[in-house]
Amino acid sequence: MKDSMRKLVMLLGCVSLVWGGEFYYMSGGKRVELTLVESGTVTPRSSQNILRFKDGEGKEIAIPNRLLVKLKDRETLDQYLTIYKMKIVKEYPDNTFLLETDSPLSAMDIANTLSQDSHVIYAQPDLIRKWNLR
């Protein structure tokens, strides 16, 4: 498993060199650029599929195969679940959902697509950040 993940990260690194700036997510209407890194200090609590990045400030971010979405109304949820082959991990108040996709790249792509949708208040990958305790 680790070897296949390492190969995927190397392939994605090569792709990002060729097409530069392809890894990003939308936050507050702004594009946050990411740089793929092979390993880092952000460690998830489970062995789920995770990609590691650094943002423009050099902070490490891990992105699993999940995204957080807040909808204007719940009526569009089933449509999105079907189109993007997602499932609900957790439902929060006010039409907010933690959704699971098949990969971290899908989570980023779907979040970026949904963030432009008029029925969506916000959508972004489920970010895992390193916390520094004082």
Structure description:
The protein is an alpha+beta fold and 134 residues long. It has one domain: Alpha-Beta Plaits (2-Layer Sandwich), CATH 3.30.70.80. It is 28% helix and 36% strand. The protein contains three helices and nine strands, in the order H-E-E-E-E-E-H-E-E-H-E-E. The strands form two sheets. It has a five-stranded antiparallel β-sheet. Mean pLDDT is 80; it is low at 7-20.
CATH third-level topology: Alpha-Beta Plaits
What is the total domain count? Answer: 1
Strand order of the largest sheet: 1-2-3-4-9
Order of helices and strands: HEEEEEHEEHEE
- Helical content, roughly? 25-40%
Give the distance, in angstroms, between the N- and C-terminal Cα atoms.
35 Å
Could you give the count of β-strands?
A: 9
Structural class computed from helices and strand pairing: alpha+beta
At the fourth level of CATH, the homologous superfamily is Peptidase S8 propeptide/proteinase inhibitor I9
User: What's the gyration radius in Å?
Assistant: 15 Å
Give start-end ranges of low-pLDDT stretches.
Answer: 7-20
Provide keyphrases for this structure.
alpha+beta; Alpha-Beta Plaits; five-stranded antiparallel sheet; 9 strands; 28% helix
What's this entry about, in short?
The protein is built from three helices and nine strands.
Blueprint of the fold:
Layout: H1 2-19, E1 24-27, E2 30-37, E3 50-55, E4 60-64, E5 66-71, H2 77-84, E6 87-92, E7 96-100, H3 104-114, E8 120-125, E9 128-129
